[in-house]
Automatic annotation (TrEMBL):
One GO molecular-function entry: mRNA 5'-UTR binding
Alphabetized HAMAP family for the sequence: CsrA
InterPro entries assigned: CsrA (IPR003751), CsrA_sf (IPR036107)
Gene Ontology biological process: bacterial-type flagellum organization; mRNA catabolic process; negative regulation of translational initiation; regulation of bacterial-type flagellum assembly; regulation of carbohydrate metabolic process
Name under which the protein is recorded: Translational regulator CsrA
Superkingdom classification of source: Bacteria
Complexes and interactors: Homodimer; the beta-strands of each monomer intercalate to form a hydrophobic core, while the alpha-helices form wings that extend away from the core.
Residue spans crossing the bilayer: none
Subcellular locations according to the entry: Cytoplasm
GO cellular component, one term: cytosol
This protein's UniProt keywords: Bacterial flagellum biogenesis, Cytoplasm, Repressor, RNA-binding, Translation regulation
Organism from which the protein derives: Caldanaerovirga acetigignens
Family statement: Belongs to the CsrA/RsmA family.
Gene that produces this protein: csrA
Pfam families, per the entry: CsrA
Length: 80
């Protein structure tokens, strides 16, 4: 990992097309501006983790529903 110190207004370049600009520093918060081509995805990792958690919860719920349906089918077969 590369660690850099930057002041307000300073920039850094990633490759030839992505530019990061320090917009504001306020205590422990830093505002960054990012210039990148439209095809470059810029994602906040906390949102990715939240989406992964929601997807896992939805899968677990679907699996539980499927298991309940399977159980009901078996019980109905046994009644015949």
């Amino acid at each position: 990992m590369l660690v850099l110190s930057r002041k307000k207004g300073e920039k850094l370049l990633i490759g030839d097309e992505v530019e990061i600009i320090v917009i504001e520093v306020d205590g422990e918060r830093v505002k960054l501006g990012i210039k990148a081509p439209k095809g470059v995805k810029i994602l906040r990792t906390e949102l990715i983790e939240e989406i992964k958690g929601e997807n896992k919860a939805a899968f677990d719920l679907s699996l539980k529903a499927f298991e309940e349906i399977e159980k009901n089918i078996r019980e109905n077969r046994d009644l015949k």
